[in-house]
User: Fold 5-formyltetrahydrofolate cyclo-ligase from Morella rubra.
Amino acid sequence: MRTAGLTRKVKQVVLVALMNQPCSIPRTVPATKPLLLSRPPSYAPPSAVTFTTMNKNEEKDHLDGVFKQKRALRTRVRKALKAMDSELRSHEDNAIQSNVLESPWFQSSRRLCAYISCSALREVDTSKLLSEILQNPATGDNTQSGKRLYVPRVEDKNSHMRMLNISCIDDLVANSMNILEPAPVDSFGNEREDGLAFDKSGRRIGRGGGYYDTFLKKYQELAKARDWTQPLLVALSYSLQIMDEEVIAVTPNDVSLDALVSPAGVIPISQAALERMKL
Ligand SMILES: Nc1nc2c(c(=O)[nH]1)N(C=O)[C@@H](CNc1ccc(C(=O)N[C@@H](CCC(=O)O)C(=O)O)cc1)CN2
Ligand SMILES: Nc1ncnc2c1ncn2[C@@H]1O[C@H](COP(=O)(O)OP(=O)(O)OP(=O)(O)O)[C@@H](O)[C@H]1O
Assistant:
């Protein structure tokens, strides 16, 4: 991964696509009351799966159970999102983006990784955030002011995704899934800079491709090896996507969130988020 220009003190934030990525919140977290989409499934695995106590067959059965639960939850959340009232959706899109724009951690961040929302997939809108970031660009290697934006580009079907730097919305073209993403080279034929990353806490579930988990794990390891500050992993979430704790089944490969932004406000989860967000 090319990481030119990333320094350990630079403030980085990653905004995660939360189309059907419900998150569980520890009960100790203040702020908004989590909405329970459904009752917890009868089979709720522990958060840290202790594979060491399982033999190979038990491990396989356990993982199959977890993936089955994830599929069922994805289907339920997808349906709830499709049925969501369009006025409520638009109200929540605005509230979530305002909450991000008003946050000191967003304002002070210098490198942001954000998904390009796809309304057909009912993802929380990011258009206002993207415009704000692109209107206030960092110039050259100056990381003291302005922001750099990195957006996802799927590289192959083996869950590989990169986060590439763009400086203008016109840098994006629709891919085979009808999601906008950047070409690997810019209009001058130069390779785009890539980079980004995260930390531990809130559970999440994605679309099942493993793209985010693979990417985040790799970046976390890189940041650790280079002694960089771990970036904040922040999920944008409609109210109905926020689950009670332990509802989401996880495997050891699932990367946890630092914080959620719901229409009602910012919900810090990890210690890193509590420190950086200082509510
Ligand atoms: N805006 C956005 N960009 C993103 C992602 C994302 O979830 N949202 N990704 C995150 O991985 C990566 C692309 N992966 C994707 C994986 C599945 C689908 C998708 O359309 N899934 C359908 C179900 C398809 C099926 O029937 O299996 C869906 O979720 O409804 C889209 C993107 C990178 N870019
Ligand atoms: N029964 C299974 N055993 C082992 N691996 C599986 C099984 N079912 C699915 N997988 C794989 O696990 C990977 C990650 O799935 P997971 O549910 O963690 O994705 P996700 O967190 O929803 O995706 P993303 O990280 O893109 O948001 C996928 O590549 C999937 O193919």
Summary: Residues 6-276 form a domain with the Rossmann fold fold (CATH 3.40.50.10420). DSSP finds six helices and twelve strands in the chain. Residues 56-82 form the longest helix (27 residues). The pocket of FFO (ligand 1) is lined by residues 17, 19, 78, 115-118, 121, 123, 152, 154, 161, 177, 179, 206-207, 209, 211-212 (CB under 6 Å).
